[in-house]
Amino acid sequence: MLSFWSQKLKKKETSPEEILDEYLTKIKKFDEKIGAFIEVEEEDARNWAKEAKKRWEKGQNLSDYDGIPIGIKDNIVTQGRKVSCASKILEGYISPFSATVIERLQALGFNTMGRLNMDEFAMGSSTENSAYKITRNPHDLSRSPGGSSGGSAAAVAAGFVPAALGSDTGGSIRQPASFCGIYGLKPTYGTVSRYGLVAFASSLDQIGPLTLTASDARLLYECIKGHDPRDSTTIPASKYRVVQKPIEELRIGYSEELLDGCQSEVKKSFEELTRILRKEVIKSGDLFPIHLPHQKYGIAVYYITATSEASANLARFDGIRYGYRYPSNNLLELYEKSRTIGFGTEVKRRILLGTFALSSGYYDAYYAQAQKVRRLIRQDYLNAFQEVDLILLPTSPTVAFLLGEKTHDPVQMYLSDIFTVGASLAGIPALSIPGPTQGLPIGMQLQGPYFSENLLLDLAQKLETAYGAKMAKLG
Ligand code: GLN
After folding, report:
1. What is the mean pLDDT of residues 5-21?
2. Are strands 111-116 and 183-186 parallel, antiparallel or unpaired?
3. Which 3 state secondary structure label does DSSP give 87?
4. Eight-state DSSP code of residue 182
5. b/e per residue 391-409 (b: at least 16 CB within 10 A)
6. Which of 63, 238, 440, 472 is deepest in the core (most CB within 10 A)?
């Protein structure tokens, strides 16, 4: 989509204003049903398009993509615009600065727009934890678009924006991409700056693209990645290692144990994909089972780590520095009531879990132990990548579940992240691509060694001709 619009702009067959209009018309017609946006930011977007048009007319366009809209998840900040993380506690908050990814996209002229709905503070797998609204899956309105970047995935699948940014801490880009039939890339930890991404669990959070094609994912990733002095966990360019190999020769591993708990449609899709890979794609390569012995501890390790970090990160929302403040002259009451009223149930649950895991007396048994097992999970991957170039597994054990189906059982909701948390804990890149299906979208996941984004995307691009993204049909 991004090169489609870019070509048209270059040939002067369209203008940034016309492109924006086309998307805004769709949003106005259908977003009432879907609920992808918390706010569209129409005025800012129109102003940007107007300026971009002038630049193209003068031949001063900032890049070939100047004026193309990109939707933004509501936990990535833009100077002078609201940001809420879909939480009441940030209601009315306006950011005094822009995230590095926003600065990078805007420097190329991209029209970054909209505050896309999400689970509050990115905690959830269905976008039902937003304090503002639920988002529906454009392929079936009774179902969840996944989460926490459900607004981003739904907006792309519904054709409200050509592409969007989301954030992934334990699967929040990949699982919604899978439920909505599109591409979602969680990059290698440290390749994309987190400056200006409201922190959930800092050692896991990464920003990444949700797109309709593999080449769009590649393009957006290239635009946002790179060292940033304002995020000391970003990796300097000199440390990057490019991983390359001809697609036909790829050696791909998969884990049989992990497939056991999957819905039958998901298993079928996986089997069909492996058949195609063997027959048509990796002709001189190989596809065989591998063993990742510590994967089964992934959910436990992830939920201890993520909640511990969240309990520390969310301490800053005290009713004084940001957003909502309970009116009181008593300081303790102000803190207590601001947080009690401002945070939703899931966020409070996680703060309590995290505080408990970090408390003296329990720290060694929970947090410290989780970090040890995290290292073993990472080591499993490093061992596996001695044998194989990539790992293939489903993105989620089920297709998009019904809205309300898991909201009363947090553990069931957490278990839906079983295939995504491993890559987050190890920091390796992982890409969800549309898999073979007759019905609802089913995502398949490619995981690779550090910095292997190119390889994952090469294979995705090769498979794209057989199984591309599916745009939803809306009325
Ligand atoms: N679903 C997971 C959670 O609730 C992952 C969320 C995310 O990646 N932001 O924590």
Report:
1. 98
2. unpaired
3. coil
4. S
5. bbbbbbbbbbbebebbbee
6. 472
Distance 292 CA to ligand 1 centre (A): 22
Contacts of 317 (CB under 8 A, 6+ apart): 89, 90, 323, 338, 339, 342, 343
Domain chopping of the chain, boundaries: 1-475
Active site members? 73, 148, 172
* The two three-digit tokens of residue 164, written as one number: 């969007």
Helices (H) and strands (E) in the chain, counts: 16, 11
Check pocket membership of 66 for ligand 1, CB cut-off 6 A.
no
Distance CA 419, CA 435 (A): 15
The owner of tokens 């981003």 is: 152
For residue 350, give the ligand 1 atom closest to its CA: 10
The secondary structure of residue 402, as a DSSP letter, is B
Residue 472 pLDDT greater than 90, yes or no = no
> Could you report the per-residue pLDDT of 305-333, keeping only the tens digit for each?
999 999 999 999 999 999 899 999 999 99
Give the chain's mean pLDDT.
Answer: 96
Q: What strands lie across the sheet with 251-254, from one edge to the other?
A: 37-39, 111-116, 69-73, 163-168, 206-211, 183-186, 430-434, 443-447, 390-394, 251-254, 286-289
C-beta of residue 293 within 8 angstroms of C-beta of residue 342: no
pTM, 2 dp: 0.97
Separation between Cα atoms, residue 105 and residue 126, nearest integer Å:
27
Residues 413/406, Cβ–Cβ less than 8 Å = yes
Atom of ligand 1 nearest to the CA of 306: 10
Q: What is the 3-state secondary structure (H, E, C) of 301-343?
A: HHHHHHHHHHHHHHHHCCCCCCCCCCCCCCHHHHHHHHHHHHC
**What CATH architecture is 1-475?**
Alpha-Beta Complex (3.90)
For ligand 1, the distance from its centroid to the CA atom of residue 278, given in whole angstroms, is 33
The band of 112, judged by pLDDT with boundaries at 50, 70 and 90, is very high
Tens-digit pLDDT profile for residues 46-73: 999 999 999 999 999 999 999 999 999 9
Which of these, 211, 200, 141, 202, lies nearest to 174 by C-alpha position? 211
